[in-house]
Amino acid sequence: MMTTPQQRETVVNLVDEAVATGARRSPACQVVGINVRTLQRWRPQGENQVRVDQRPLAKRPAPPNKLSETERQELLEVCNQPEYASLPPSQIVPKLADEGRYIASESTFYRTLKAHSQLHHRGHAKAPQAKRQPVTHTATAPNQVWTWDVTWLPSTITRRFFYLYLVEDLYSRYGIVWEVHERESGELAAELLELANSPPNCWKRQYGVKSCMAKPNPSCTTTMAAS
After folding, report:
1. Domain range for residue 101?
2. Structure confidence by residue, pLDDT tens digits, 137-155
3. What's the structural domain count of the chain?
């Protein structure tokens, strides 16, 4: 972890104050979060000044496989060609390999594009768009929102199932209408929804399959939501 000269100076002064009041150096270092060897490295014996972190000043030789400026320009030109402008490096490198060409590794492609501010949606690629939150349905009373689904019903035969088509009131959890079939089909689901939205089911009533217990509602404004 990198430490600034001010941070090192503060830590060393705190340890010195603790030692001056009778504390041992090792426990004092543990309290401030360092060990004795770190303290000795920061301020070697015989020195009064705290040494600064030398890591930012280190001269690191360039790796032998570093791309030259010519190779970097070739990489950028390839990435901006029409057939590659809309592709990420994870797709560009395999396509070049299929053509028998190798310019650099995938990570080098990413690193070079980032250094030239091109690690974004290039070409005709569209930027990601925030997805709209799914529409939610709420019900504060019966017959405001109905929901429907198809679920499996186990049978007495292994791996054999029946299919329950059910329209349910979201508020009361009562079944409006349901049917059981031997197969799953969009046509059967459509027939069930038509049945639920046609008289006598599309009425305000006490719930039960095909049991109308209240006055009909010709407008039938119940919302139908798929679960």
Report:
1. 69-115
2. 788 898 888 888 999 999 9
3. 3
